[in-house]
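G., the chain you wanted modeled:
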Amino acid sequence: MIIDCHCHAGKGDRMTAPWNTDAPIEPYLRRARKAGIDKTVVFAPFHSNYDHANREVARIVARYPDRLIGFAFVHATRDAGRILRMVARAWKWGFRGIKLHGFEAMPTREVCQAARAFGMPLLADVVGRAEVVDMIAPQFPDVNLIIPHLGSFADDWRAHQQVIDQLVRYPNVYADTSGIRRFDYIVEAIKRAGARKILFGSDGPWLHPGLELHKIRLLGLPADQESLILGSNAIRLLSQVKRRVAGDAVRQAAREAECNVAAGAGFRGSVDSGSQLPPGTQPEYEL
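Predicted structure as tokens:
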């Protein structure tokens, strides 16, 4: 099974660039099907209200439940005090991970605690600031971090090198291959960290999934290693998402969140608040 672990879907509302305006899923799905991609992880484009954007993603996933796997997008500072509630709601919709972009805000303890509470991987774009991974990974060894673009979509070779070092040092750090232009860094990452630490991603719909997939084929890896990158690693991480979450674990995460946000911005309400499924969504779907 081939799984693309990095694709956007839905509409943004800022409308100043493609990545905050529209991420149409249908053209991507046509390209992915032609390329032989079976399933795709999707999350919103940039948005001023990720609660709203995540609901739209849930509806898109519901239209293509055999093809799409949802991740909840959060803004670490703007959503502070309610991230656990947002993730809990998405978990009830069948989402399997959390997406965060460092262009907006870097990961906080609250985000990592939410990922831990639900056993979700955290796909965190550190926008070239690979040193942030050195802060997070040892603090949350039980949270799997996926660093897209090997640390930099902007072709920062220093970030690529640093993330490769982190892949070797931290058992819970992984990277995806989306948008990496310097091919030899993918080669080095696999050579040093092993195929078990790399996931195929495209950054669709704006990057062609077939082209990004061809980069993996060009590595000429043994079949077992290629299979890990193209799907088995993603299945292993996504299968760790909890199907049931004990109330004590959620309450503990909520208490920790209250300690880590500004006064008056703490977690409020139960995780069930507002968790009703948007029309047409499914509570669970299988890999």
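Residues 263-277, 279-287 have pLDDT under 50 and may be disordered.

Shout if anything looks off.
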